[in-house]
Amino acid sequence: MTVEGTGLAVFVSTAVPSAVDLLAEVRDLAMPEIIVSVFACLALLVAAGAGPRHQRLAGWASLGGTALGLVSVVSIWIAQGRTLPRIGLAGMYVVDEFALLFKGIAVVAAAVTIAISMRFLTEERTERGEYYALVLFATVGMMLVPSGADLLSLFIALELMSLSVYVLVGYLRGDGRSNEAAMKYFLLGAFSSGVLLYGMSLVYGVAGSTRLVDLAVALPQAISANGDLVLLVGVGVALLVAGLAFKVAAAPFHVWAPDAYEGAPTPVTAFMSVGVKAASFALLVRILVDGLGPLRAAVESGWPGWDLSVGVLAAVAMTWGNLAALTQKNAKRLLAYSAVAHSGYALLGVVAGNRMGYTGLVLYIVVYVAMNFGAFAVLIALRRGTIAGDGIEDFRGLAARAPGMAALMTVFMLGLGGIPPTAGFVGKFYLFAALVETGDRWLVALAALALVNTAISAYYYLLFVKAMYADADEAGAPALATSPGLLAVVVVSGVLTLAVGVYPQPVIAVSGAAAERLEPAPGPKPTRNSAERAAPGGRAR
Amino acid sequence: MIGFAWLIPLFPLAGAIVLGTLGRRFGERAVGAIAIAAVAGSLIVSALAVAEYAGSQHHGAAVAVGDGFPASFEWIPGGAARTSADGIASAPVAGGLSIRWSYSVDALTCVMLLVVTGVGLLIHVFATAYMRGDPGFARFFAYLNLFMFSMLVLVMAANFPVLFVGWEGVGLCSYLLIGFWYERDAASDAAKKAFVANRIGDAGFLLGIFGAFAVFGSMDFETIARVIGTGDIVPDALGEWGVLSVIVLGLFVGVAGKSAQIPLFVWLPDAMQGPTPVSALIHAATMVTAGIYLMARVHGVLLAAPSAMLVIACVGAVTALVAGLAATAQDDIKKVLAYSTVSQLGLMALACGAGAFGTAIFHVMTHAFFKALLFLGAGAIIIALHHEQSLSRMGGLARRMPVVCATMCIGALAIAGVPPTSGFFSKDAMLIGVLESTVLPLPLRTALFFVGLVVAALTAYYTTRMIGMAFFARGSDHDEAHGGKLSVPATMTVPLVVLAVLSVFGGLFDVGHWLAIGTVVTHAGWMVPALATVAAVSGIGLGWWLTVVRPGAGRAISLRLGPVREAAAGAFGFDAAAGVVPVGATLSLARAAMLADVEVVDRAVNSTAAGTVSGAGGSNWTDANVVDGIVRGTGEATVSGSLVFRAMQSGRFAGTSLVLAMAVAAIVVAFGWNAAVAAFGHWFGGGQ
Amino acid sequence: MLTTVLTISGLMFALGVAGVLTRRNIIVIFMAIELILNAANLNFVAFSRYWASIGGISPHTGEVFAVFVMVVAAAEAAVGLGLVIALYRNRGTVSVDDIDLLKW
Questions:
Q1: Which residue, A397, B226, B262, B290, has most beta carbons within 10 Å?
Q2: Is residue C84 part of a domain?
Q3: CB–CB contact A179 C86 (8 Å)
Q4: Predicted confidence (pLDDT) at residue B570 exceeds the cutoff of 90
Q5: Residue A330 forms beta bridges with which residues?
Q6: Domain coordinates of chain A in residue numbers?
Q7: What is the reported pLDDT for A212?
Q8: Which of residues 55-84 of C touch B (CB under 8 A)?
Q9: Does residue A85 contact residue A517 with C-beta atoms inside 8 Å?
């Protein structure tokens, strides 16, 4: 025991300056998170103090918190843009453009979720303030994840997010489907966290540090110094990849998604499919690109490289998600499979590994936020009284009942299907072009597969359009359950989906800035490369 | 006005937005006026732009439209585009993708602009009469204007992605308009079919686009043409299947979807479920010719891939023949015209495959005139007879609708290719183009030429049959029951007359010559015109004889041909197969995926995982659960077998988690857990 | 020494995975997940000791990590058991075989 004791003392005395300094550092680095956390606690207090009729106050307070959080994120980007990246808290926490963009996505996701939840919770007769507090706590997790520069901070942030979302999924306590979804999500989520953690422990064992920058240096050194370590690092990386694939719901690790998406309250499903997904991708990028980037490709010494397995994951996720979505009758379940496919598309950016691929990944997530939230908002508006409103047949004749809503839903579906001139097309275009740009024969083939998948996916997205425009109205269908917040979400999402499709330059610029510090993969690999690419003048770098 | 050509698509877009948002508040007159004004605006600007282009020294070169927003702006930014190429071997430089939203005007665009806006305007006018009283009047014109916008973007696009925007836009509008009368199940199904066929096409098209990007380093038509012009790209030889051939085939899959070539043509006859003006505008005159336009637009790439061109020519010829035969056996007047359109599109694809792109565009133009005329005439009949579309229940309409009859007869003569109508010139040019092709090998091009002649005769036959049955055959119930004149409003007759005039004199504008792309056909010699005329006249004679002079004989022959006729009516099984093959295949694939999710994976995974677990974790053997399993699975021979059994019995959660765990366990085993531990021990052995 | 600990942790991980796969009772599955977390903890502590003994770049990180994992595991248990109770109230079962409202 003495050994540990003295060691810890040394650690404390050298690495941690003083409590006051530490707090100041937290304040400087993590103001948005502090704001959102404070408002989350405030919402809890309101929930406890306000009567059952005034629980919505907690919602308004939370909405204010997200607004302030967004202001804080944006002001950091604008005011401190030149000093980025800023690293602190013993190297565990980083603030750069990538982190800020994903923090922005997280608070926007929270705000939208709160906006579309209010009416929904009234319809469900379960409006309780802690719902909003949980959304904010999950949001804090989502904001911390992209700032993680250390396996430990990443893990804690991930768990903060996940634990809050488990509860949100099971929020409808009296609803068996919600319970069941929460249980399945929780069990598989905890299991995958365990797998991820075990992978982390192995990687730490070889590198001797949990900091991502150290991993990037130490792991390749260890492998090249001792070939026997390939196996151990291999197991660790394999477990990490598997755990990450679960978190982003890439098939075949998607099994939790359809159940959790279907059973969760619809606003929570929207939150999961956008906020949790974006944060999971931030986690994946941090670990795979920042931490394990140098291990991307296979090397002579026998290291197999993770690019192949991530490429296969992307291919399987796209294909499986799209095919499985074709036969779905439940809209939430369909969108769950569609989300699996979209994870596959987004992974293509990591697989491409060039500047354009990373930009495409970030861009894709940004546009996906707009399109998916819009679609879910329309879906939520269909939930009314005794009508579940989550089947595709519930969209029947919507064009006649609510032409504006139907038109915007069409825009979202076209966007998700990647049909121009919507934002979805621009996002897909960027990702596919990034693959083609690598010139690697296999990656070009992957792009071709992605194209075929896009064609398949358009079919089921258009099922919604068909139901809305080409099927007769349900007799006596009630009016939509809209609210100002929900309408605002639908309209803003629709305008963004179209505007970004027509003029994507600003969004691409922001995405490019966010992706700028991600280290691109080195040039084409001779082993997996077609001969002609290696010709002189082939690839200027 | 070329500098202001970016306005052309904006007029209908504005119309669509106004009608889509506020249309329901307006009366029918106001809606019609807005829609027509939008298209008229496009026509005027187009005409001015074309006049300027034709009068200038630009001939043959493309003129970029304007500079700066909104005429042209960086749409999907990247780095600097690579402009020089050093052969297929080179890849684009990092960040080499920059897509501008830009239009350009060249001779090809000029022709298409005039055809689309001119014919579009006439059809809009006609539609105001045709759709009168329909509850979805405003919605209809909003879609129609949106279609015009998309089509104009398509023909003005200066690069692939912008063209693709238009390409998808016209497809979407087509889909919405086919299903416009959604209360009919057939309309709804037809819309779905059109959608599936077009998505298959789009996948191929996108493959071609990205392939072109990979090879040429640009998606810009002008840059691609320039790269080819430098001679750095080595073209494939005939019979050689290089990257270029694959790209061209990919593009042709897109063409086949949009322009109804075998095997994707099956959606077009069903698309006739849409209102007739839609059939005239989208499914005859404009959208379906987008594929032909695309081939002409990238003719340089096609010419560098002769093997693929050979495929295109053959597919086009077979399409023309099959659809021509199918048209002879239809009873629905619109289906006759639909198969006729497929057949004519096949001829155009044949001409493109032979390298005579200019003649194909020439035929696109004349075909737009006379096919729109025939469709609108058919629409007038259908409205007058209260939505009767069956030819066998028409007859004797010549007296009752003289103007419609006269104009449709002119249209029929034009499509049959009787001199001196426009159809004669364009069809003649295509046939000569095939015969004198420099791309196709000799015996093949002669054979394809004769196929073209046969199709010409078939065209004359089925058109005459249609005209004869509708107007001149002894009247059926309609004729006897209400024999008076049927009133046709001026908004219908005026477009018919204008189109009839164009159908007759359109041949004077030999745009094929003007465009000068691919093989330029000069009308020399008398043999081909003579053969074509003989084919047309014999077809007309036969059709007239069997439907008007001796209808009894016609019916007898048709009875005797029973099964053949049936086969022809169903387009020789393609129609039925289409319902099964692409749609069915996709759906059964989807079902397979679901099944995989439920059954196969569950089981495979259960057994794999169970096997893995039993193999990997020795500790597992002591698990009481396994012992339980052994006890219960008395019939099972081995421990792992009993594990499989139990796993299959287990509930959904176990199945779910197994999918997840399978991969983990498999990965761990694959990387060799024991070896890893041993290696670690070896490495750390000294230290401990 | 390290090899022994690693082998034990590997066995614990395998046991945990096997438990998640084969067990039907939610509580037991949950315990199996805890086993996985503890296997990771064992690794962290063992590696930390190893790196401290040879003077690595940041010694004792693993021990700190293990403490955090314990905290997270406690929170996870709180949430998980809460969900189990809600489920049991609704359905009267804690067997994963019986929770099948959400169909494939």
A1: B290
A2: yes
A3: yes
A4: no
A5: A391
A6: 306-533
A7: 93
A8: none
A9: yes
